[in-house]
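Q: Hi! First time asking for a complex rather than a single chain. Here are the components, and I think there are two in total. Is that enough to go on?
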Amino acid sequence: MNKKYVMALLLAGVVFSSELRIQARSVTEEFKNKVIARRDSVVGIEAYFTPSTSSKKTPDAEGFIQRWLLLEPINKPNRSNTVFTDSYLREAFATKYFPNQFTVIPKDGDMVKAGEQQLKWHALDSKNFNVKLFRFAHGLEKQIYGVLFWAVTVVDSPREMQNVRMAVGSNSASMWWLNGKETLLLSGDRRMVMDDGVSKRITLNKGRNIIRGAVINGPGMSDFCVRFLDEKGEPIKDLRITNK
Amino acid sequence: MIKGINITRVLPLLAYCLTGTAVAQVGKPFIHDPSTIMECDGRYYTFGTGSGGLISEDGWTWNSGGVRPGGGAAPDVLKIGARYLIAYGATGGGLGGGHNGRILTMWNKTLDPKSPDFKYTEAVVVASSDGTEDCDAIDPGLLLDPTDGRLWLSYGTYFGFIRLVELDPKTGKRVEGNEAINIAIDCEATTLMYRDGWYYLLGTHGTCCDGPNSTYNIVVGRSRKVTGPYLDNVGRDMLKGGGKMVIAAGGRVNGPGHFGRMILGDGIEKMSCHFEADLDQSGRSVLGIRPLIWKNGWPVAGEQFKEGTYEIESERRGYALELAVDFTRMPGGMRGFNRDNNEPIKPVPSQQLADVIKLWPTGNIDVRIGDYMFRPHQKWTITAVQDAGGYLGAPYYKIVIEGTKRALAATAEGEIVTVSEFSGAAEQLWRIDQLTDGTFRIMPKVVPGSQKQLALVSSGDSTPTLAEFDMKSDNSKWNFRAH
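A: Yes, that's all I need. Here is the structure of the assembled complex.
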């Protein structure tokens, strides 16, 4: 085998094992920053999520929260996202689709009945900074368009943190609650951009904090990302994320 | 005269209100997803979605006539050596259908359909998407890297990632073994450019194809390497949705998309795009051309020149272009000290044209540059001249003293003068281009009896002339101050 072929094999192995991120130690400078495109046609969600374990999970290097309980999508047909005005969204997100929807902290595998649908909660860790709800639904062979997703997670803080902000990006519109209180509404048709919508100053309690989100989409690639920023706009990383 | 109202005061104001608008391209500039504008044998070409494209003799009046086989959408064009490389997407992307896309390239020696050399080569596929992967192969954009001659193509849309592939500049085909890499999300209509050690990735955010409700806007990120990462002005990766605004809706047009760059000369760049809706043209999708400005290493669209009355200020010294006439003093001098501040305050009227015009010569009057005092001999009303043609992005303008017909003109000696009445002669027509640093170049359409392309230049603090434009010198630059 010539050197070039060995390098190519090495590189292929590295790419496969690290998904979209290249661990740069054994590869040349040129490849260090490349994010090689993958074929994502396979069914299943393994390319994007791993099942949550009980091991400690912190936000990633940029503060993004990757551990969530995700509910399979509720059917909410919309042929276009132009309907996502503030009024429409407030009504859509206030509607009760299933029991205890605003208070439940579900367990992996819990089922709910939403209208005619039987939907399951999944405890998952996203492999990316963002939570690709489209791929979650697609991989589980559920509805991908005309959907409303619910997401819950628990953030354990070592101390009370004041004057922090929740920073969210979502595709498309979404609403977010911290400890039962509405914190953020991202309205209109939009795509998932990091730090797109940011809450007013809020306080993280010492100990448990519940984040709940609802993401709605017509024909788009549903997605969201969440992190907390401190007073200076820096990401908060000394949190523990659990979905229990 | 209307009782109680001095009409000579009202008329200029009325004129300003009626003309305070920018004018758009003329002809039939209707296109969607235009390619970079190309010059070929003295004409300008751009191709769009569907078949065909637009042609212009001067860059201002555009009509259909371009010919591009293959259909599909959102082509781009790049001149490499003596040939033109055309890239296009076989599909328009789409949620209704699938996300199976193909990007193709082909060559032509000319873009002029009437030329005997006009013949496209067979199109070859250079990138594709299989329908479920995190990419939909549409909307190609081309870059020939001036530092090393390598050829790159970006493509993709909101479905998944924007990807980058490398092509062979000799064949237009995909380089053997090249792997597509992800460089952005949340975009479509991307393209790449290079300037001063930075690579720029441009793309659209917002909604396409929704007429006057399209929120399409063009954003940019930059990288030291063509392979990324492309970061925006707050350090956000375009792979996380970052992007700095280049152009958004404004005036009576919304939904800019499909950026193309033209470098016309040192310091003179234009950008092209479409606007999803031009409310002055039935809300149709139209070709847009704007100046391209560079601010701290970031590209920003300049604005279309707005007709109005201005001070024409020299960048050299900050004095104003004015008629060489006597300075007429206004009544009043300095108020003495230790006066009573409780005396009532009353506005003092500005000097009016009527106060001074009788003292001016009636024939030609020379022009100089002097202290700006917002006096009538220093205020210039600039309006587009109908049916006089134009250049990339703008029509020719007349520059007249406010409230009069006295017009700025170039002379055969390569100087400037004002004639008592605008006649529409070529030397009275002016081309205004915003430069990459935000100042302006002002050029007569013609210097009588000369083929030379000269621009308005400060030869001294107080003396204007016509001379060769030099981007490196503030002598060649002007500002229009509306105050």
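A: Chain A has two domains: 3-32, 49-242. Let me know if you'd like any chain examined more closely.
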